[in-house]
Amino acid sequence: MGKIISIANQKGGVGKTTSAVNLSASLAHMDNRVLVVDTDPQGNATSGVGINKADMDQCIYNVLVEDLPAENVCVATQVKNLDIIPATIQLSGAEIELVSTISREIRLQKALESLKPLYDYIIIDCPPSLGLLTLNALTSADTVLIPVQCEYYALEGLSQLLNTIRLVQKHLNKSLMIEGVLLTMLDARTNLGLQVIEEVKKYFQDKVYQSVIPRNIRLGEAPSHGEPIITYDPKSKGAEVYLELAKEVISHGERVG
Ligand code: ADP
Ligand code: MG
């Protein structure tokens, strides 16, 4: 049975999509079967793995709103072992359209049930909000991975996210756990980044991954080539650290059982 990990933080630009794409590709590179589920109407994870959104006439929207089976919209990527359920701009209507549908918070969970046995990991990239799409992702997930950008105010807004996670645990998904907290975009030249690491570790303690993602030009460039870093520049620091992260995620799963 695959493990479902949602990558969530309602702040935009903290590295959710970069981490969803590159953690997934690294896990796939290590011979795991991986599915990325793009639940952000921006579709950045979709284009980030080289899928042309303009070519898609169906996406996660049709699954969530129209009950299309999820396997009908799964597509293979250029990366071995890595599939994606894409998102297109059509999804931007879903937040509102879902409000009036039955079991609106568990639609993604239901949709992924039949896919779970086919993958080792299902990684869900969340939009930058705590709306119904993120709720669906948290309700489907075994665990949630929280990227935190190494910048001033890093912890701001996290209490809101943790509150939402608690509500989901109480009402929708009792077994949801925090997978880990990932520090992203560290600029090692400044003291600020190191201070933020200290602060986040004080707060989240052993939930914080040893792997810290540095600010890396190649990581920023890769999406415009529609490639994860592991194929775009396998020798880069970014590729190295996301592989390290994948190892931590795998060993964490083994520890928990
Ligand atoms: P989110 O999904 O949380 O909105 P993204 O992953 O899209 O955040 O990252 C925001 C921007 O920063 C993107 O342009 C991305 O390419 C860039 N970026 C993300 N992580 C890094 C990094 N470690 N180094 C350099 N650029 C990065
Ligand atoms: Mg994103």
TrEMBL record:
Entries under InterPro entries matching the protein: AAA_dom (IPR025669), DNA_Partitioning_ATPase (IPR050678), P-loop_NTPase (IPR027417)
Superkingdom: Bacteria
Cross-referenced Pfam families: AAA_31
Residues covered by the AAA domain: 3-178
Classification via CDD domains: ParAB_family
UniProt protein name: ParA family protein
Highest classification ranks of the organism: Bacteria, Bacillati, Bacillota, Bacilli, Bacillales
